[in-house]
Design a protein that fits this description.
There is one protein chain. Helix 2 runs parallel beside helix 3 and helix 9 packs across helix 11. By secondary structure, the protein is α/β, with parallel strands linked by helices. The protein folds into 2 domains: 240 residues, TIM Barrel, CATH 3.20.20; 80 residues, Orthogonal Bundle (Arc Repressor Mutant, subunit A). The strands form 2 sheets. An 8-stranded mixed sheet has the order 1-2-3-4-5-6-7-8. Strands 9-10 form a two-stranded antiparallel sheet. The N and C termini lie far apart (49 Å). The radius of gyration is 21 Å and the shape is globular. The protein contains 12 helices and 10 strands. The protein binds iron/sulfur cluster (SF4). The site of iron/sulfur cluster has 10 residues, from loops.
C-alpha cells in the first residue's frame, strides 16, 4: 500500500486556467476524499464522505514532485492545491505550503470547500498561502444540504462564521466561489441569503460559476449567461462571472491548448511528451493541435539527437504567420 502511495503522481499541468493563468496542480488526496458530495462535482459521487484529517500521502514525495515540476522551468503562474477532494483533509497541508514558499516565489493557491475552516488548526495551516478560494454555494441550511450534500455534522452557519473569522486572520486574498445550479440554489431568496453572508465574510472577490463540465448528477443543470449576470448584479460590486461558456461540457478548450503549446515552445524547444504531461492531455488530443500550429507556421519541428522538438518558427516562416493565425482563429470559432 505504502509503495503504491509513494508512486502516486501528485502534480498535473501547468494547465491553462482562466482565473489562475498557468496553474501547476497539486493533488494530495486519494480519489474523491471529501466531506461533501456536491451534485455538480466533476469527480462523480463521493463514495464515502469523510471529515477525518490524515497524512494521506508522504509530504516528502509531494515536495519532491513539486520541485521537479518547478525545475522544468515551464511557465507557472500559480501553484494550486486542488484535485481529488478536499485538500485541507491532509494534515500536512500547512507544512507543504510553507515549504513551497521557501522553494519558489510562485504564489500558492488553495481551493477548499470551506467545511474544515471551523477548525483552528486548519485556518492556521492556510495562513502561509497567497490566495484561498473557498466555496460557499448556499447560506441556508436546506439549500446547503441540497447542493453540497455534506456530512450530517457540517452546518452552513458554522462555515459562514468560520469564513468571517478567517477573513480577519488571513493576510492574503480570498476569492469566494459560488457554484450555481439551476433550480437548486439560484432562487431570489437563496441569493438574498448569500448576499447577507458575503457582506459578513468580506472576500476580495466573489466568483460566480455554473455547471459547465459533466456533473455527478445528470440533473444538475447550468444557469444561462443572462441568469448569472442578473445574480452578479444582485450581489453587487465584488461579484464576477468566471464561467467560460465557450467550453462545451466534456470538450477540450481548443484555444487554451494551442496557446499553452505556443507559450511552452516560446520558452524552450519542447517534445510531445513535455506538452502532454504539462497539459494533462493524451497524445491523441495534442497531436492535431500541433499539426494545426505547424500548418499555420506558428511553430516549427526539429530533430535533435534522435528526438523531435517543437520551437518557434524559422525567420522565413514568420512572415506569413500573422495572417494565418487570424484565419486560424476564424476556423477555431466557427
Ligand atoms: S467539495 Fe469539491 S471535491 Fe468535494 S464533492 Fe464538492 S465539488 Fe467534489
Amino acid at each position: 500500500m505504502l509503495k503504491d502511495q509513494e508512486a502516486a503522481s501528485h502534480i498535473y499541468g501547468p494547465v491553462p486556467s482562466r482565473r489562475l493563468g498557468f496553474s501547476l496542480g497539486v493533488d494530495i488526496l486519494p480519489s474523491k476524499t471529501c466531506s461533501f458530495d456536491c451534485v455538480y462535482c466533476q469527480l462523480g459521487r463521493t463514495g464515502r464522505k469523510s471529515g477525518r484529517r490524515g497524512r494521506y500521502f508522504s509530504s516528502r514525495d509531494i515536495l519532491r514532485q513539486i520541485k521537479e515540476a518547478i525545475n522544468k522551468n515551464q511557465r507557472t503562474d500559480h501553484i494550486t492545491f486542488s484535485g481529488s477532494g478536499e485538500p485541507t483533509l491532509h494534515t500536512e497541508i500547512g507544512n507543504l505550503i510553507r515549504k513551497i514558499k521557501k522553494m519558489t516565489e510562485i504564489p500558492v493557491v488553495v481551493l477548499t470547500n470551506s467545511s474544515l475552516l471551523t477548525r483552528r488548526p486548519v485556518r492556521r495551516a492556510l495562513m502561509a498561502a497567497d490566495i484561498i478560494v473557498p466555496s460557499l454555494d448556499a447560506a441556508t441550511a436546506a439549500t446547503f444540504r441540497r447542493v453540497n450534500r455534506p456530512l450530517p455534522s457540517v452546518q452552513v452557519k458554522d462555515i459562514i462564521g468560520a469564513l468571517a473569522l478567517f477573513r480577519r486572520e488571513f493576510q492574503g486574498r480570498i476569492w469566494l466561489e459560488v457554484m450555481l445550479v439551476k433550480g437548486i440554489n439560484d432562487s431570489p431568496s437563496d441569493i438574498k441569503s448569500l448576499k447577507r453572508a458575503i457582506a459578513r465574510i468580506r472576500p476580495d472577490k466573489v466568483q460566480l460559476n455554473t455547471v459547465v463540465r459533466p456533473p455527478a448528477e445528470k440533473w444538475a443543470q447550468p444557469l444561462s449567461r443572462r441568469a448569472l449576470d442578473k445574480i452578479k448584479k444582485d450581489l453587487g460590486g465584488r461579484a464576477e462571472v468566471v464561467v467560460d461558456f465557450r467550453r462545451r461540457p466534456g470538450s477540450p478548450a481548443v484555444s487554451d491548448i494551442r496557446r499553452a503549446i505556443l507559450a511552452m515552445a516560446e520558452r524552450r524547444p519542447v517534445t510531445l511528451e513535455d506538452i502532454t504531461s504539462s497539459l494533462g492531455r493524451k497524445e491523441k488530443e495534442v497531436r492535431p493541435h500541433l499539426e494545426t500550429l505547424l500548418r499555420w507556421q506558428r511553430i516549427s519541428r526539429h530533430k535533435h539527437g534522435g528526438t523531435i522538438y517543437y520551437a518557434p518558427p524559422q525567420p522565413a516562416q514568420k512572415r506569413k504567420k500573422s495572417l494565418r493565425w487570424e484565419s486560424g482563429r476564424a476556423e477555431k470559432n466557427s
